[in-house]
């Protein structure tokens, strides 16, 4: 496990999501990367049926095929937990207290590449039963290093070669701001969760009636 | 189901996507003065060597009164034994159990259970933020044996004198709790006969049988809360 950076790839005007993914995959393959299977990261969201401590609790359970036996559970504005994937069965037992949000399941899936010390994943984002591409995510893992600041330079270089603007997540930015910040197992899931929430938010805004403000699917970086 | 039975352990079964959700169990009790004889007998009839354990267990409940739903009970169990140098401590275990099946015709008690390994550092805050409240805690010290798929534990329950401080404990009684248990997927009822047959073999030493906890709790003088 090394430093991982997940970013949103902007969609191109008048082009389909699949077109952008294919173009990106070709660029990665031209660098000499080899296909190494497929990956999937999904997030199921549960909501408390009654307020707890004065507020409705939202729990996001993230699953990553890189850690197939684990569930990463995040309480919104609260603690997070790494547990066996049987945690999902506990939520099924607590269905009177926590109900899954309907059509809220979001998933990023695609092809996994290996390029020397890098692990590159290109995934399309889909929500619920709808199979149309709602966004494109790119994950770059620099496997030999666990320090964020020491890896950022080489990750940026690879992003520039691929012609992608490094619009990093707020989470990644906070890690870079801390000196000697090292990677944790939950970091990748946290970045996916932040990007999933942005895609969901942009979908909600886009579904509003005409005349109301809307924003593009692309997630704006803070760097 | 045959696929599950062919697995040597629950861990092996879970790798293949089979999750054990049923627990078959029997309980018994033995006085300190007779414990060594029982341990000697268990050593002779179980597989491999006995293992020592010293576990701290905290029980939490999510009360369903407001939603007219049954309470959800989970316990967090972690080992207090020192970790050998160079070794990594196993993650603590969260266990969900529901009320046991009240079917009297079954040879053992049956309940639904889920064992979940969790990271230790945030589990208490996580449960609190989900609305769980602390019920009670205890320290369990004893030996565990294996016989086929059955786990046999002989342990002494200790009361924790100051909440969360496991250094200050005292034995709850002069007896030891004996538990025969086996976790398996639903539909593996035949395992109950296996557990019951072995429990019957130990009858000359100790009576290990179905214990109706609800009836026990309603007995006058029984203290529901071990910390009380």
UniProtKB/TrEMBL annotation, chain A:
Subcellular location: Nucleus
UniProt keyword terms in alphabetical order: Activator, Nucleus, Transcription, Transcription regulation
Keyword GTP-binding: no
Statement: the UniProt record of this protein carries the keyword rRNA-binding: no
Biological processes annotated in GO: regulation of transcription by RNA polymerase II
Record GO cellular component, one term: mediator complex
A GO MF term: transcription coactivator activity
Known partners and oligomeric status: Component of the Mediator complex.
Family the entry assigns: Belongs to the Mediator complex subunit 20 family.
Role of this protein: Component of the Mediator complex, a coactivator involved in the regulated transcription of nearly all RNA polymerase II-dependent genes. Mediator functions as a bridge to convey information from gene-specific regulatory proteins to the basal RNA polymerase II transcription machinery. Mediator is recruited to promoters by direct interactions with regulatory proteins and serves as a scaffold for the assembly of a functional preinitiation complex with RNA polymerase II and the general transcription factors.
Listed name of the protein: Mediator of RNA polymerase II transcription subunit 20
Organism name: Dimorphilus gyrociliatus
UniProtKB/TrEMBL annotation, chain B:
UniProt entry keywords in alphabetical sequence: Activator, Nucleus, Transcription, Transcription regulation
Location(s), subcellular: Nucleus
The keyword Transcription regulation appears for this protein: yes
Cross-referenced Pfam families: Med18
GO MF annotations, alphabetized: transcription coregulator activity
Keyword Transcription regulation: yes
Chief location of this protein within or outside the cell: nucleus
A GO BP annotation: termination of RNA polymerase II transcription
GO cellular component, one term: mediator complex
Gene3D superfamilies: Hypothetical Protein Pfu-838710-001
Subunit: Component of the Mediator complex.
Known role: Component of the Mediator complex, a coactivator involved in the regulated transcription of nearly all RNA polymerase II-dependent genes. Mediator functions as a bridge to convey information from gene-specific regulatory proteins to the basal RNA polymerase II transcription machinery. Mediator is recruited to promoters by direct interactions with regulatory proteins and serves as a scaffold for the assembly of a functional preinitiation complex with RNA polymerase II and the general transcription factors.
Family: Belongs to the Mediator complex subunit 18 family.
Name of this chain's protein: Mediator of RNA polymerase II transcription subunit 18
Native organism taxonomy: Eukaryota, Metazoa, Spiralia, Lophotrochozoa, Annelida
